[in-house]
Amino acid sequence: MLPLTSLALLAVGAVLLGYTATRASLLTFTHDESFSYVYHARASVEEILSFTIRRAPSNNHLLNTLLMKLSAGLFGESELALRLPNLLAHALYLVTAGLIARRFGRPPVILAAFLVLSLNPFILDYFSVARGYGLGLGFMLGSLYFCLRCFEAPKVSSLQAGLTAAFAALAVLSTFSFLHVYVALNATVVALILARAWRARRAGVGIGTVAGVAARSALPLMLVGAILAALVAGPIRNLREWDELYAGGTIGFWQDTVGSLIRASLYGQPYAPTLAPLLAVLVGVVLAVNAGLFARFLVRGGQRCSSALTLTIVPTAVVCTLTSSVQGHLLGIPFLEGRTAILFLPLFALLLLNAVRAAIASDQRWFSVAARALLVLIATGVALHAIRTADLRVVGPIDPYNVDTLQMLADLEADRRSSRDGDRVRLGASVVFEPTINFYRITRRLSWLREVTRAPLGGEYDYYFATPDDVPALDGRPRVTIRQYPDTGNVLARRTRG
């Protein structure tokens, strides 16, 4: 029989996976998901890999696009089928989060650590949709776990090093912003290999033996790196030349990356303005504590498990911060922000847990008890926040517009049947609706609907579907409103004939 802690982790994980699976089957396809499928996943594998499709090529998240194509071929074009790869990535994330959480102490602390790692609503959003970010998070946490295993073992296993590199490379193929994680984790493993080689040399081991062991450990990193470079160098160069690396901020790491993630995690709740500055202070404190733990280890050393956590998490976070800052300050590429910065959320959760773990290990009993109480309080707050933000209708801040699009198509078809002959309908729509409308036109075989374009709404159409901001563009057009959708204010109207 499984221990109680394992049963608790399995139960929470099953609930979370059930939640994202339910959302994946119910939620209307978002703008970016639809764009990925309509314009990229339906292309040839060669076109997908080579990035020769010039229509929003940055929307082509390589691995996600290929897996959408595969899943559609195997299981059809339903929302659930196309989002299945990210659901599997969520399962990987949850399993890995549980394995990492078990390193944080006793059962209550383990469960609390798992909740902190798994309950961010912004992260849950991306496991519910067909985008590369959920895949990237799953592979990233897997890579972190194998990197941790490298530090825990007395010798750097070629297998563990290779799995660290392979999972990090898969994260990059999921979406290129995870290149920061790949560089950080590979640099961390290389530093470990060199440190142990130097220690062995000082212990009197022959230089040939030391060099051979180091080379065998590093060989998988080089092989994976060569394969990854062959796959992504061309696409990244094309994206740069085509000015497609535009997503992100222009101010700085703290304001753009940290600030956007705090706002995204708070999910627009009423308490967000109050909590945002407190969370910013917490980020600063956690970073300072982890810097101190890392420095103390370098000076004094420490126990293998606790030092493994510190030496895996802290350098990874530091290198990701440095490379993303270089990206913004020196390369002219916007700072990571929002979805492109999502890789920092599990990193910060791990830094927080590592700081609390160090406090729990304190010789001062009152300090240890206070740290446990703090972690339970944080985990409880995270859980309550996740429950409050749970939603089976809309994908939070990702795409608030298309929640009505599927219902609009049903309303449009009903009105068409009652008021028109067999002609194909010309629908004018706001730009944000175009990919999703065409996605359902294709996947649901709506032969009565013509392809929707991005032409201005003022053209001659049979029907109009407009956001509240675009409704004035219809002024002067004789029309009758069929329905205004209460949650969004979107308007479906039919053109009347004079």
Layout of helices and strands:
Blueprint: H1 4-26, H2 31-41, H3 45-50, H4 62-75, H5 79-101, H6 107-118, H7 121-127, H8 132-152, H9 158-174, H10 179-202, H11 207-241, H12 253-266, H13 272-300, H14 304-329, H15 344-360, H16 365-389, H17 405-419, E1 427-429, H18 434-443, E2 463-466, E3 479-484, E4 491-495
Parallel strand pairs: 1-2
Antiparallel strand pairs: 2-4, 3-4
Helix pairs in contact: 1-5, 1-6, 2-4, 2-18, 4-5, 5-6, 5-8, 6-15, 6-16, 7-8, 8-9, 8-10, 8-14, 9-10, 9-11, 10-11, 10-14, 12-13, 13-14, 13-15, 14-15, 15-16
The termini sit apart by 76 Å
What is the domain tally? 2
Largest sheet: 4 strands, mixed
Q: Determine the number of helices (DSSP H or I, runs of at least 4 residues).
A: 18
Summarize the helix and strand pattern as letters. Answer: HHHHHHHHHHHHHHHHHEHEEE
Q: Indicate the overall shape.
A: globular
Calculate the mean pLDDT score and round it. Answer: 90
User: Roughly how many Å is the radius of gyration?
Assistant: 25 Å
Question: Could you name the ranges where pLDDT drops below 50 across 5 or more consecutive residues?
Answer: none
Strand order of the largest sheet: 1-2-4-3
Number of distinct beta strands? 4
Strand content: under 5%
> What percent of residues adopt helix (DSSP H or I)?
55-70%
Secondary-structure class: mainly alpha
